[in-house]
Amino acid sequence: MPRIEPRRRNRVQGRRPTMSPGMRVITAFISVFASPFVLAISLFRPSLRVGKRWIASATVLLIICAGLAFAASSTVDYWSARALRILSDYARTRLEVRDLPFAERINFEALRNGLDPCLVAAVISQESGFQVDAVSWRGARGLMQIMPATWREFMPEARCKGDHAPPACSDECIFDPTANLRVGTSYLRYLVDLHDGDIIVALASYNAGLSAVAKYNGTGSPYNIPPFPETQGYTRNVVQFWAKLRGEIGEARIRLVETARTGRAVLSWVTVSLAGLLFAWVAVRYDR
User: Fold this and answer.
1) Is 127 a catalytic residue?
2) What is the pLDDT of residues 224-236, one digit of tens each?
């Protein structure tokens, strides 16, 4: 008996202190989000020992990110469909613009071609910023940035060929605000009809051209918009300004869709990066 007592005392002294349930949850929560950093550091420090707890934590984080990315994808599709329905309502119920440059001419030419004046104003804001003498690096001219070839197609009898520098040479010149609006709204109406009333694709065609939209149609690009940063930014800005002119509800819905799309992209990149980190760790450190 005198030899046994010291062994019991040593066993009690070597027992690990128990952790409360609350501390266990907090420790597990921190481990999940710290696990990618631990695995990344261990790749460059082979002497660092990584327990199974960190591998399990990183796997849990990967599953969470993948689940959130999938849920965000479904949510974006749902909100995008609702936003497109709002835009379709805008296209059917026209609203005249006020307190904007050339407001009366915009209202007249837009309504004459069956377009929402707010949509035409949004296009002008992105094309020229309401500058009648604007000339782009591509050669587009005037308020609605008409290309000379488009001008000659819609104004074949005009003396102006649409290829000279500003200012306007006559009242049937590409730089004349009324003539430019007449051709611009007619061309936009043509694009809307060509794409069966799809405003988004019509706007993409207005910016990138018909051939570019036809090339990427059906390739999985969102809304069939060519994957050009300029065209995607142009379409997004026109739609946001259009919704702003029409009302706060539509603007909030469009912003919500854009925020959700950004969140989905971030989650997707985090998921792919985490999966790559786990694969690299298994390839380099497993069983070493």
Assistant:
1) yes
2) 677 888 888 898 8
